Predict the 3D structure of the following.
Amino acid sequence: MKDDGDFLPRDIREQIELIKEADILIGIPSFNSAPTIGHVVKAIEAGLAKYFPRSKSILINSDGGSSDETMAVVKKTTIDVDSILLRHKLGNFRKLATPYHGLPGKGSAFRTIFQIANDLNVKACAVVDSDLRSITPEWIELLVKPVLDEGYDYVSPYYRRHKYDGTITNMIVYPLTRVLYGKSIRQPIGGDFGFSGRLAKFYLSKDVWGTDVARFGIDIWMTTTAVANAFKVCQAFLGAKIHAAKDPGSDLSAMLHQVVSSVFNLMEEYEDVWKGSPRSETVRTFGFPYAVGLEPIQVNLEGMIVKFRRGVREFSGLYVSFLSADVLDRLLKIAGEPKDLFLFPDTLWVEIIYNAALASHQKLMNQEHIIKSLTPLYLGKVASFVKEAWESDADQVEERLEALCHAYENGKPSLVKAWGDKG
């Protein structure tokens, strides 16, 4: 299905017609981001001036109806090239700020960016979050240059994160996506991506803009769609991503549902791909990985264990619908262990995730109920990980996660066999 861009405001379409074409497009989706978006705009302008001074570039702010001065900040923010010692002034550069249309959510903001990229026939694009405090001009080079110079279609971000940050990624999304689709992309829902104009056009052609992809599933959808359709993918090391990190044991049920439902729905769309994909392989990483200082994250270990124990009791009647008696027995045994002996094995966790995916596939019950019942089990797994990683450094944590990925890998043949044939 080809999109004709009718959802774009008239004044934006007129400006696009005047601009005609561009080499690079950088998009910033936003909502009430006035306090932070100015810094992001400056970093983008400096990055374009420093690394792509001869390219025709455009910055698009796709805004979700902010009630503050977000779009006004974008329009008035600029850099003093001389003050930051750049050798090149930014030449052919334009900024556009526009409200997006469609379902409220990041995906609808991205759709506007994809459409403008397609209309301007751009070669390379990147999108970055509007609340970044750690973005530097080098991010623009790292997200765009692999596309322009090396022929990559998709550049996933690779950040250094605190060992207790991003636990939904670490426990579920990273290992599951890696094992299903055969590419070891470390942060498939990182939020800041580079991609080719050709891939932007492909994204735009997909009929998903009236679904949850438009609301909250865009990050994992972009990564999975690129990999599953054999686009050339890599990742870029961006250093630290400083954002409002949270205790992994708090306020997570909505996010867990959003992310896991997106992963499960993509399994339905691309089952012919993942059922036949080989063991995972590394992807090329651009940039120089280095140690960074990270903001500490406070973890309520006792609270997570308490919620796990309570959840095992409360959801036991639901668990029998998709978990074996042996799995339930093991969960009950873990729930009865004292805190100092608390341990949630990788093999058990993988069996639970795969059986939840099967239950969703087989429509044994409402998908939302399945994922809601995973929340206390996820907290138990995270609590176990926190205990195991208490004295671990960053490299040791990665080794620990590698072991978890192997458990997912070893369980995949059973998943494929149980899934059955399409139709």
Q: What stands out?
A: Residues 394-419 form the longest helix (26 residues). The chain has a mean pLDDT of 91.
